[in-house]
Amino acid sequence: MVAAPAMGLSLGRPSTVWKSYCTALERQPLVTKSLTSLVGFALGDMVAQATTKANLRKHKRFDFQRTLRMATFGGAIGGPMGHFWFQYLDKAVLPKTPKSPAAVFSKIGLDQLIMAPIGTLIFFASQQLMQGKPRTIGSQVKEKLWPTTVAGYKLWPLAHLVNFALIPPAQRVLYVNIISVGWTCILSQAAEGIKAEQAAFSPPQQVPIVEPIKYGKDAPKLQRA
């Protein structure tokens, strides 16, 4: 009878949860990283919806389908892509000295020049496909790929400096997802569309001025047919 409460207490300890997560990373790294990205992208979108005035004015309610699309991308594409990409970098770039400045900065450069634009392109394309709008993929990518990639250059080089220099390889996807909560807000708003944000801050339409009705001497004379 005493063992059950003790088990419940141990499961609630952060150290035990962390050990369980690390064990899952060792046993099923791809699945664990995919689920981590699923949660990270969903959380980022929920934060975006809760803090963006444009979204509240457009939808007025929480958009569960939008969060589902973001979570699906994170779990099905983002997590696996990060898993295999980081593995490739560790094997291809100075594997004998992975923490050296040359290795770290080379990985940052490759990530930002190759994976940043490719990953962003895949993100926008997948969002349009999940909305049943394959014909708009070209226009969406043309409009948003470059601005979003440039915005990422303000965040990810510094974030990956910590990632490649200090974070253990198995935990890099988790680290990226923690940083990505804010970045996912940006991606989520970009996928939702710039027009929605512009509409939230557009000036009100002019109301036509109605002339007051005049009485007495100032009243206009009616013409008889």
From TrEMBL:
The chain crosses the membrane at residues 67-88, 108-125. It is found in: Membrane. GO terms for cellular component: cytoplasm; membrane. It comes from the Eukaryota. InterPro entries: Mpv17_PMP22. It is a multi-pass membrane protein. Keywords: Membrane, Transmembrane, Transmembrane helix. Belongs to the peroxisomal membrane protein PXMP2/4 family. This is Uncharacterized protein. The lineage of its organism: Eukaryota, Viridiplantae, Chlorophyta, core chlorophytes, Trebouxiophyceae.
